[in-house]
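The following record pairs a protein chain with its ligand, heme C.
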Amino acid sequence: MTTRRVRSRVLLCFVGLLVPAVLSAAMAGGPAREAREGGEAEGDPAVERARREVRMLDTLYKTAVVSVTDTYRRGQPAIMVAKDVFKAMDEGGFHSARLVDASMAPLGVDNDPKTDFERRAAEAMRRGETYLDEVVGEGEGRRLLAATVVPAVHPRCAECHGVEEGDLLGFIRYEVPIR
Ligand code: HEC
């Protein structure tokens, strides 16, 4: 094989790896722009475990939603699948997750920010933040509230939502027990 062929293979491989990585990085947001609240919880290993759980769930949900969007190019939006999964997780007592609008023009009637944390998260996302979290409750009842940005990462998202690719759509709001 010539050097040139090897090079183009390496390049293809790299692009193949890069596209999903860029998509999930765009969805998950880099740590550089993270804004965290509840400063007193820094260094608490239980809070760090809850943050890790949020990062794991975020990768899982976002990879699934983008993959459904990319694989099934017609029909219902992937949010319908996500909503079923969120409901099953909530009913199982594992955690709560919700897709919330930050664009001020939600397609779903119930997707506007409802709680104080969701309203603050929507404002933070509009200012350009990609992540926000906060510890609430006490003792056994402590929970991590987290919000992770959701831009229009795929041309289909942008088309259906009537925005430009890359524009902010909303965020996933997590509520995860701290233990
Ligand atoms: C086929 C059309 C369609 C596509 C494609 C689509 N969406 Fe949606 N999206 C909707 C609809 C409809 C709702 C409201 C659903 C509901 O809550 O009943 C929604 C809701 C949302 C919400 C909550 C805020 C709101 O507008 O209600 C976000 C955030 C969101 N979508 C992000 C995305 C992302 C990211 C993608 C691409 C990966 C995507 N959507 C692709 C139709 C679409």
